[in-house]
Design brief:
globular; mainly alpha
Length: about 280
């Protein structure tokens, strides 16, 4: 099973949709990196800020951060979430289900979707950390925020999983890149599970993550929760809005459960129709 998943991930990484997101993220990261280099070229190292603060999704990067968070719910489905629909169109789903069994087929495919989506987002962001380590000091020297130490300390306490930040900029940067990858992967798996229920138009697959994330934000505003529920606050590095780490993890857990339930019910529905003679 693991070898099959690995082969499927490698095959998926060769597809245009995966390359579009992966190379798009990598080019975006590189362009942002060059912009920051030009901005601080010739600055004395004694006042040079830590490079981790200028990463692509940082709250200090006002050029690209708003656009990146806006398109995130749509582009996360591109690397792999169309896999079930593509299998149906190509007719390979019948062969794979007959060879593996329905349970193993859906498990294999959803694991492939998770791994491919994770790699498409996490790898470019991890390479970004490496780029900034080359050009900027490893520790915080200058201060780009221009706020008092008291206010800055208070803002750090509102950062998602701020406990990791106390170990340093670099561990928090790596953790942030991994968080992006896992979040995108879980949302893509959920969207893919929804797609198994007979979507007539592939374009509809762009909606589940968008509607879910914005729905959570609206619910938080309606019930006046004491923490931010906007998904962008949980994706932006160094964001000072109060967050709920438990809520963030809870949503991820619920999405994983919903994904499993949708696939389980789909398998049972196929069996009741007498697959492979019924609908798949």
């Amino acid at each position: 099973m693991l070898s099959l998943i690995a082969r499927e991930v490698i095959w998926m990484m060769r597809k245009k949709s995966f390359k579009l997101v992966f190379w798009g993220m990598l080019l975006w990261v590189t362009f942002n990196y060059v912009q920051v280099l030009l901005r601080y070229w010739g600055t004395d190292v004694s006042v040079l800020p830590g490079g981790m603060e200028f990463r692509l999704a940082s709250t200090y990067d006002f050029n690209w951060m708003p656009l990146l968070t806006e398109i995130f719910p749509f582009v996360l489905v591109l690397p792999a979430a169309f896999s079930f629909l593509n299998d149906e169109d190509a007719g390979t789903s019948v062969y794979l289900k007959a060879r593996l069994g329905q349970g193993k087929y859906y498990l294999m495919r959803i694991m492939t979707i998770f791994c491919a989506t994770f790699l498409a987002f996490a790898v470019p962001l991890l390479l970004e950390v490496l780029l900034f380590l080359v050009a900027f000091p490893g520790g915080r020297i200058g201060d780009v925020s221009n706020v008092s130490p008291y206010l800055k300390g208070h803002a750090y306490e509102n950062m998602l999983f701020h406990e990791v930040y106390y170990f340093g900029d670099i561990p928090y940067a790596i953790f942030g890149a991994l968080t992006w990858g896992v979040t995108a992967a879980i949302l893509a798996c959920f969207a893919a599970a929804v797609s198994t229920w007979g979507l007539k138009l592939k374009v509809i697959l762009f909606l589940p993550a968008y509607l879910l994330l914005n729905g959570i934000s609206l619910l938080g505003q309606a019930f006046a929760l004491p923490f931010d529920t906007g998904y962008w606050s949980y994706l932006i590095y160094y964001d000072a809005n109060k967050k709920s780490a438990a809520g963030f993890l809870g949503v991820q857990a619920v999405l994983l459960i919903l994904t499993a339930v949708l696939l389980y019910v789909r398998i049972k529905a196929n069996e009741q129709r007498g697959w492979p003679h019924g609908e798949s």
